[in-house]
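Z., the sequence and structure:
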Amino acid sequence: MAVQRVTRGSWVGVGRTGAAVLAVALILTGAPPGGSAAGADDDVTEAPPDEALESAPFRDGEWLGSYQATGPVSRSNPQINMHTLIDGTVGFEVVDDVAAGEWTMQGSASGTIEGGTISNVFQGSGPVEGDDERLHLGGRVGTTWTTTIGGHTEVSEDPIDLGPFGVEVTDVDCNRVLGTWEQSFEDVIADVGGWSSDLDGSFVAVHQGEDPDPALLEEAESLLNTYNDWSDEVRAGTIDVPDEGPFPRPIADRANELVNRAVDLELAMAEADRDDLCLFGQDLGAYEFLLTALVQEVLSWVLEVHPSLTAEDIYSAADILLWMGGVGEGAVRPDVAAELEEQLAAAGSAVLDEVAVTDGRESPSGGSCTTDSPCLPPTDDVLLLLMVGADLGLTLSVLGTDLPPEDAATHLTASDDEVED
């Protein structure tokens, strides 16, 4: 996720009858973990969808390792059956997920040939190329064959072009890469026909640099643990929220902390050094998914239980949700996002109802501002809510009259001079 503008601060206000909403307010959209709206029974620690399972990047720097392959080798004309063992070393450097380096190989094979025995020893070297999904080892191997048939032994030299061995990378973490061989011997030996094989082997390489900073991963784990504790309390009904009046500051502070920590962590991960992200390993995408899901759940709960959200609360919540991918096009958990958008629209409409102009003054369309055809004063709060509607394509309403985002501004009065605060 690219770094963009994002609201940060105290986004859950205490309500219109208490202290003013501090600096930046975020409302909480969606469904409470223990309520009935979107995601009510969801646990954000559950496995995310497959598309979220992005791995951390292949760590830049020098890697040294070894590999092995073993298995049967056969040829039909003449009939040859052998068992091969390959050992080798590998060294490569990674820059932006691209690997380049060199390998060495040594090995042997032995078995039977029609009427006798056959064996070989070989060694070689060549380049390493690839990325965090697949490594390729190609080059040239010198092979010495020893064949004994009917008591007669023959030794021959046979250089072989390899091209290339394929290693499928099965696991990457900060300091280690694991892989398995993916091509058969028949695919690998260029210039030699009629061979077939089923090599089975292993590949491991170890990073040679310093260990990365674990701070980001530790914060992610700590945040999810804190969220789970909060969620358990919500589900158990032990967080007492009044039906009216100021939203209790301690409750608002806990919700603010969860969302702000998620925003800070998302920003830090977006700007982090590749080495620091590698500690997330194959769970990198899952953690990014969970941060958005956490924000959806917390904001959802607040929207559900907060008795007196302000326009600034609603605008700030929408701003954060948009940035985190919790609402809007391409949002995480689309069903939850859709219900969050409905909650935002309902909360915004409730604020507009309170400031609706119905005193008979002339409306922008030339009629009168009445209960059946209400108008809106062009205050900062109203403009903030209309921006939310425009950003998310929401249809707000005022006293039951829908305000589609494309023409909501036509309901603004020319001025608010006559509107009492």
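The mean pLDDT is 80. DSSP finds eight helices and twelve strands in the chain.

Let me know what you think.
H.
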